[in-house]
Amino acid sequence: MRFAAAHALCLILGGLTVAAGGDSNSPWHGHGPGAGDECTLVAKGHGIDDAPQLLHAWQKCSTISIPAHTTLNIATRLNMTGGRDKHIDLKGALRFNPDIPYWTANGFPFTFQTQITFWILGGENIVLDGGGLLDGAGQAWYDAFAANASLLRPIIMTLYQATNVLVQDIHMLNSPEWNNFVNEGKNVTFSNINIQTFSTSKNFFANTDGWDIYRSDTVTIKDSIINNGDDCVSFKPNSTNIVVSNLNCNGSHGISVGSLGQFPGVFDIVENVTSTNIQMSNAQNGARIKAWAGPNVGSGIVKNITFENFSELAVDNPVVIDQCYETNATECAAFPSNTYIQDILFKNIAGTGTSTKVASLACSPDGRCSNVQVDNFSLSSPAGAAVYACQNVNLTGNAASLFGACTVT
Ligand SMILES: *[C@@H]1O[C@H](CO)[C@@H](O)[C@H](O)[C@H]1NC(C)=O
Ligand SMILES: *[C@@H]1O[C@H](CO)[C@@H](O)[C@H](O)[C@H]1NC(C)=O
Ligand SMILES: *[C@@H]1O[C@H](CO)[C@@H](O)[C@H](O)[C@H]1NC(C)=O
Ligand SMILES: *[C@@H]1O[C@H](CO)[C@@H](O)[C@H](O)[C@H]1NC(C)=O
Ligand SMILES: *[C@@H]1O[C@H](CO)[C@@H](O)[C@H](O)[C@H]1NC(C)=O
Ligand SMILES: *[C@@H]1O[C@H](CO)[C@@H](O)[C@H](O)[C@H]1NC(C)=O
Ligand SMILES: *[C@@H]1O[C@H](CO)[C@@H](O)[C@H](O)[C@H]1NC(C)=O
Ligand SMILES: *[C@@H]1O[C@H](CO)[C@@H](O)[C@H](O)[C@H]1NC(C)=O
Ligand SMILES: *[C@@H]1O[C@H](CO)[C@@H](O)[C@H](O)[C@H]1NC(C)=O
Ligand SMILES: *[C@@H]1O[C@H](CO)[C@@H](O)[C@H](O)[C@H]1NC(C)=O
Ligand SMILES: *[C@@H]1O[C@H](CO)[C@@H](O)[C@H](O)[C@H]1NC(C)=O
Prior knowledge:
Helices cover 11% and strands 51% of the residues. The protein is mostly beta strands. The protein folds into two domains: 58 residues, no CATH class; 345 residues, Pectate Lyase C-like (3 Solenoid), CATH 2.160.20.10. One 2-acetamido-2-deoxy-beta-D-glucopyranose binds next to strand 19.
């Protein structure tokens, strides 16, 4: 029955040649869905789960259209991996039904940071666009998390083993957890994404990162607006060749490399990352790099990272390197970080902090940071004269004089 219903909703594009569909041996009447077909989905309504028809269209159609004013009710998980030459034209919405017991038991799990997700999307040559909405229906999750701090909450969209992907002109609302996870991706672009997160109760929308990049190469994130409650963009282990530009981040924890080097025996690489033209407002951090130190941690390399053209407004820590992450001074001196940091540029960083300390570049002892350049800083604080702190690093650049001599531990 579901097949027949799904078929009835698959409209063949005018002008399509017969080669694209209409196999005479197919079980379909007339044109069955085949390569080149466009399928248009209509919500079943009455609380019926639309995930099966969306999955069916993903298997059978090259273009999947969700028209304006159509909200698909996604009540079961979406495994949309291994696709090829797919276009999801989302003008309407996908709303992820907040059935907490269902998702905590059935969300796709990832060992990395113990995450789960509603949706894995992967394969090759995939476009998701159309101006529509991914609605995480997060309020129920924010309220449940307030009562259960170990509650697993689903990421809206995980690009998993995805190559040559474009996500553009998409709104994301109230994710229960991270908004976008790029896991083992290559050549992925996000453009014109509008992320909004808010709570109508007293409970906060925790861990709602904009993007987390992991084991991925060649990722671009640009021209987007993010209003959330955790990292705006986070470069996790093995993020390489990344450009982030023209973002307006509000209320976040900033743009962050790391934390890296946490797990013994694991080597983390973050290399070739540029973040530029960033408006960062009401945030915990602006531009940040953090790496673990201590006795039982991992190792890695952070190399060629540029933070350029940051305009910051009311940011608690506008510029940060913390290479003694989660350790105190004694322990960091005994066990300096094995995640080396080199070739770092902070350039054209302007705006306001919230406390007097507007920059803190704290490296582990024993020369674990090298070639750190600071240029053209223009930061002030409403709390008094701006303080620039540095430790165990030789800074270069025209803003180095603001820092003066760095502490050696
Ligand atoms: C998703 O579906 C593919 C087959 O289509 C399967 O190989 C894969 O294991 C599934 N992934 C998960 C996480 O269930
Ligand atoms: C809290 O969440 C965890 C993880 O999702 C779950 O295993 C546990 O049962 C929940 N606890 C309660 C009291 O609901
Ligand atoms: C990268 O992906 C885009 C689609 O976003 C595609 O147009 C482009 O050809 C891909 N680049 C390479 C080198 O494959
Ligand atoms: C920006 O973030 C602040 C602090 O989190 C919040 O109070 C404010 O409403 C946000 N502004 C917008 C435009 O969303
Ligand atoms: C990162 O890449 C390196 C080199 O390929 C590899 O040895 C390491 O295990 C990777 N780390 C992670 C966290 O995947
Ligand atoms: C970083 O970029 C340089 C210059 O393009 C390139 O040679 C190097 O291979 C890149 N590193 C990684 C890890 O991709
Ligand atoms: C540094 O990374 C950027 C990408 O973020 C890349 O364009 C540039 O070539 C890299 N430079 C070096 C010296 O590797
Ligand atoms: C930073 O801003 C300056 C001045 O607006 C501009 O010339 C430069 O191209 C920008 N840098 C990047 C990497 O966008
Ligand atoms: C530093 O941390 C270590 C390990 O947690 C702890 O044993 C030690 O007491 C701490 N020292 C200070 C000065 O807080
Ligand atoms: C320094 O930053 C200011 C904005 O804070 C900008 O107008 C100016 O062009 C920058 N100077 C250089 C040399 O990049
Ligand atoms: C800073 O430079 C001096 C002189 O070259 C060198 O002795 C010292 O080890 C360097 N410090 C760090 C933290 O790299």
